[in-house]
Each structure stands twice: as structure tokens, then as C-alpha cells.
Amino acid sequence: MKRISMKLVYIMTQKFIGREQELQTLEKLQHKDGFQMLVMYGRRRVGKSTLLQKFADGKRVIFYTAIRSGAQRNLELLSQRVLQVLAPELPNVTFPSYEELFTFIGQAAQKERLLFIIDELPYLVEQAPSLLSMMQKAIDNMWLSGQLFLILCGSSISFMENEVLGEKSPLFGRRTAQLALQPFAYWDAAKFVHAYTPEQKAICYGVTGGVAKYLALFDDQRPLDENLCDLFFDKAGYLYEEPENLLTQEYRNVTTYNAIIGAIASGRTKLTQIADLTHLEPSKIAHAVRNLCATGILSKECAITDERNKKKIRYHLADSMFRFWYRFVPDGIDAIGMGHGDIYYKHVVKPHLSDYMGEVFEEMCRAYTLRAGLTGQLPCLVTKVGKWWGTNPRTHEETDIDVVALDTAQKQAILGECKFRNEPIDKSVFEQLQQRNGLIDNRYRVIAFLLFSKTGFSDWIMANKRDASIYTITLEEMYNCCARNSPATRYSIMP
To answer: pTM of the entire structure?
Structure first.
């Protein structure tokens, strides 16, 4: 655990990873004239505070992270931060009210560009419900005429969207930008564990979902199996109780949410199926599912080109850490409790990692396809990527297509198949994909096929891929191409 802790400290304090576009957005706002207000939000552990700390470095900044305490205590602590920056000669002074504190900040921002960051805003408003109204008054009466750059940040997505950005919010219409911070894409997540092989990098992404805090816990100088055992299958592991901790922070009735997530993890992807398994009221399930989707734990899926078909709507665990945890940890609770989580991992988890990674790999391939299609690596401009499932009218069997990439302007499509397994993709896999041509919306003409493989491809695929319009991409190439790709440097995966 000591080495993991040292790695975390190193990542968080010495090496800033990714977020180039987000930093560019922040810097542009910083250099714009006049009042600016950015609302930033995203799930817990995603790296919001780290990003803000990186951006704030070297700037004239009041950076306050709210705590879950009384309104007076937060006012005292915020007053200290304000005076440390603007009037260090006045120690141990507390402003009588937030109104006077905001006025003091506004006066300072009349003379210079001043960055004012409030992190964990929901904690502040929780004990001071009128705070947003006071902030609105400060903006309208003073801040708009100055050089203040205000950043409001929070982990409660529903609060930030409804209470800060929503139409009924006192701050509605005042923001000049908003940033919903997402987990890292697989290519950026790999930078946390650059010493690992492509397969190991993919597994790290697959069990963390690209969440910065979780990635920083992995020590790429240790075997991947040891990291996974220490983090998930040890009572002291950081991720052993993480889903429950997150649910407790977000929701009151954790039992209901836990039951719904467990049902979806077991394959019940429709609301009626969840109700049958959990015996919860449909209205309660619908409400909880909406909340889980808002926080990014769940997502609502529709078959691409068939989005209006309500019968095809299904829900799945969008958060890979939750998906991995609910797949493997519950059955190992007893073994972990006895201190034998490593044995459970070796005999129960590790043999099924490739199977678990199948869905994750599909998501990675869709992300790769969209990026490649937008930057000129594919034979059409891909603006939309998803998957398709339904009944094949020729075979009358349920089937799916892992990757469907659409050029919505030219009505062209590319179909893809993904295999996270040790055997090379052979002719039969391509023929099965080819037979699915015609299943998606007939307005789209299929012009190429993508084959994604963890390992490689058979001699037949390599010999015939040009004539058959097949693009072959290995897992290693998925990482290498994304590492090389930049606005000035493009790569080719032409068949």
C-alpha cells in the first residue's frame, strides 16, 4: 500500500496528465476581457480539483474548497482565503456576511484580473441556501463591470445542472461557459500506466472507466494482478467499498439504488425486468434510474438508426468500475473477508477477464472509430457512432453489430466487429459481419468494414482486406495511432 500511496502523490502533485482541451478552454476564458463565469461539474474522482489546481498555478487566485459544515464555518474559512490573497495584513478577520465578502472581492476585481474558484459548491449552498441569490446580486451590481473570472465547481451533477444552470436558478443566464468534465478516454488513461502492455492498459481502463483517481492508484512498476488484488479484493483496498461510498454520498436510499444496479449488472436491462427481479415499484425504479443516469453510473441505450423504437431502449452500467465491481466482488466477499482475496482473484476473476473486457473493448473501438472518422482516417466523415441490435429477418435470430459508424450527410456507413481474445480474427468473423449488412437503416450505404482484434488477423484477412474494404486494427495499433495522432500529424489505417 505504501507504493500505491507514493504513486498517487506523484501523479497528483508532480505529473499532470491529459486535459489539454480543457486547459485551453480555461485559458481562453482567463484572457477574455471582462467578467467570466464558468460552471464545471462531473462525477466524483474524475479530476476536477486537480484540473483547477493546474489551471490556477501561477495566477492571482482565491481558491476555496467548501466543506460539509455550518454556514458560519464556511464563511470563516472563505474569509481567510480571501484575505490571504487580497489583504494579508488582516489576519483572523471574518466578514460579517457573504454579501460583504462578495463586495470586497468585486472591488479588488475592478483593478485586476482575479480568479475566484469555489470547489464543492453544493456543500456551501447546503448550509446557506440563499448563497446563489447573493451571488446573483453581486454579479449584477458589481462583478459584471470588473475583471473577475468566477469558477463554480461541484460533484453533484443534478445540483449543478438544476440549481446552478437550470432556468429556475438565480444564476441562470449569468454563466459564460460550462464544462462537464468526463473520465479520460482510453488513450489518455494509458498515460497513467505507460509501462504496461496494451492489453494491461486496456484492462486498467476497463476496471476504472478512465476515472483519474482510480488510475492514479495503479503502480505500473508492479504486476497488474497485484494492483487488482490490492485495490478490489482486499478489505483495505481503496476500491473494495468504493461503489457503496459513492452511492452513500449521492443518494439517501442506498438499498434501492444498490438493488437496481445489481439487477442491471445481472443482465436485466429493461425497466420491466428490473421490476420483476427487485419487486420495487415501477415509479421508484424510474426515478432511481434517472438519477443514476444523471450521475453517469448508468446510461440509456438505443440501437443506432432505430432510436425511436421504445422496445429497444435498455440500460447498462456505463461506469466500468461499477460494472467490474458488481460482476466480481460480491461473490468474493467471504474469501476477501478471510484474507484470501488473492486466491479468489486467481481462480475466479482472472480466467474471465477477457470475457469481461469484451464490452469495454467495444466501447474503446467505438471511441477510436469516431476519432478516426473525424480526423480523416476513414473513407467517410464519421459524425455518429453506436451499436445496433435486433432481429435478423433472414435468420430470425437476435443479432448485434458492435460498431456502426455513420456519415449522416452522405448517408454512408461503416460496420465493425470487435474481438478481445487471443486467437486471430479469421474469415468466418468477417463473413458474419458482412451478412449483417442491410440490417441498419436502408437509407445508409455500407462502404467498409472494421475488424478490431486484441491479437491479430488470419492470413486470409490480411490477403483479402483491400478487395473486401476491410480495415484491420489491433489493440496495439489503437494505442499507437492515438499516441501519434495530433492536429498536425495524421496516421493511416487504409486497407
So the answer is: 0.91
SS (H, E, C) 19-34: CHHHHHHHHHHHHCCC
**Size (the chain), residues:** 495
Q: Is 339 left (phi over 0), alpha (psi -120 to 50) or beta?
A: left
pLDDT of amino acid 190: 97
Pairing of strands 177-180, 148-154: unpaired
Across the chain, how many H-helices and E-strands are there?
A: 23, 12
Cα 268 to Cα 281: distance, rounded to the nearest angstrom? 16
Tell me the residue ranges of DSSP E strands in 93-186. Answer: 114-119, 148-154, 177-180
pLDDT tens string 249-282? 888 889 999 999 999 999 999 999 999 999 999 9
Cα gap 487→495, rounded to integer Å: 22
Asked if residue 493 has pLDDT above 80, the reply is no
Q: Which CATH number fits domain 357-484: 3.40.1690.10, 3.90.79.10, 3.40.1350.10, 3.30.310.50?
A: 3.40.1350.10
The mean pLDDT of 165-179, rounded to a whole number, is: 96
Q: Of 179, 181, 184, 159, whose CA–CA distance to 171 is shortest?
A: 159
Structural domain boundaries in the chain = 19-180, 187-356, 357-484
- Could you tell me how far CA 215 lies from the centroid of its own chain? 12
Residue 438: exposure state from Cβ atoms within 10 A (0-12, 13-18, ≥19): exposed
Fold of 19-180: Rossmann fold (3.40.50)
| CATH class for the region spanning 187-356 | mainly alpha
Task: Return the closest-CA partner of residue 304 out of 363, 367, 388.
Answer: 388
- Eight-state DSSP code of residue 398: E
What is the rounded CA–CA span in Å between residue 82 and residue 101?
8
CA distance 455 to 418: 11
